[in-house]
TrEMBL record:
PROSITE patterns: ACYL_COA_DH_1. Pathway: Amino-acid metabolism; tryptophan metabolism; Amino-acid metabolism; lysine degradation. This is glutaryl-CoA dehydrogenase (ETF). It comes from Kineococcus gynurae. Residues 248-389 form the Acyl-CoA dehydrogenase/oxidase C-terminal domain.
Amino acid sequence: MSEQDDPEMEELLEQDLLDFSGLLSEEERRTRDRVRAFVDERVRPGIAEWYEAGRFPVELAPELGRLGVLGMHLDEPGCPGRSAVEYGLAALELEAGDSGLRTFVSVQGSLAMSAIAKHGSAEQKSRWLPEMAAGRLIGCFGLTEPDAGSDPGSMTTVARRDGSDWVLNGRKRWIGLASIADVAVVWARTDEGVRGFLVPTSSPGFAARPIEPKLSMRASIQCDVDLVDVRLPADALLPGARGLSGPFACLNEARYGIVWGVLGAARDSYRAALGWSLTRRQFDRPLAGFQLTQQKLATMAVAVEKGQLLALHLGRLKDAGRLRPHQISIGKLDNTRAALAVCREARTVLGGNGVTLEHSPLRHANNLESVRTYEGTDEVHTLVIGQQVTGLPAFR
């Protein structure tokens, strides 16, 4: 009998220990349930195969557009204009399927589309955002470089004027979606400081190569990008972005989504462990009947529930226009660490079977090793919080 055919089992798996759902509005619950149903129908049946093959299911892009999760929280032409909390709930449900799926939505919406929405001209917004929100065009965000990860201020990519044009030269690394993108938001040094450019990926001199092989985020795409004398017209410049505050504003959008997303991986892993422990029998009793197993399950459940409350609090602050960068760092740092611990512990409940792709916890744990690093490492977010606590910057 499957878990879906066992009402008692389903009730145990779906328990809401702290009545988190009771803190949500009816519209927020509808958004959550709609995205969860999509993941159950379109992601779970294929994710193990995609992960093993190292393939991102790009065919889902227009479906995600119709689902309304691309640029979900942007109030711009063609964008859904939903709340920050709704976007967070969607990120959680997407990552319960796989971090690669949530990463696609994050790169597309919180990075590439957010850059255009925050810093673009009216013409740039109308040209790109509606098609990107529909999933018909894909974007990427080129900030990180081979020698400039946590320190984007040391980037070496440059853009120089040549008449009315701009010419870009440089390299970027770990650029999500670059090999399938239609447009790249590229950040480069200029005589006016760091500026952002919209680079059609069909431009001569633009080349993207997927980084392979990977042990993490296998159902996702990250690339090396080369920019060799890429010539752009004057209107490729994002007029509203000057200095590193431009890309950082977009990074904070992505980091906020991660605060929620990682809890999806944690919840899915916890439920996998709980379901297994209730049906797997050893020494003539279910694994769930042993004290050490219950300790593991209780610890995992508390971590997921606590993380949801933190994410919701930050979401309410964001919707009220009061969310600050150090608060995002608290959420990204703590929820990612907690989620990774949950996934690893869930794997132990599954025993040796947990190292196969039949079960999700180790896949989630592997993915979270990447999530823990991108959009700011543990160390970077620790120092952001430390600066807020002490008033003293300690990055250099």
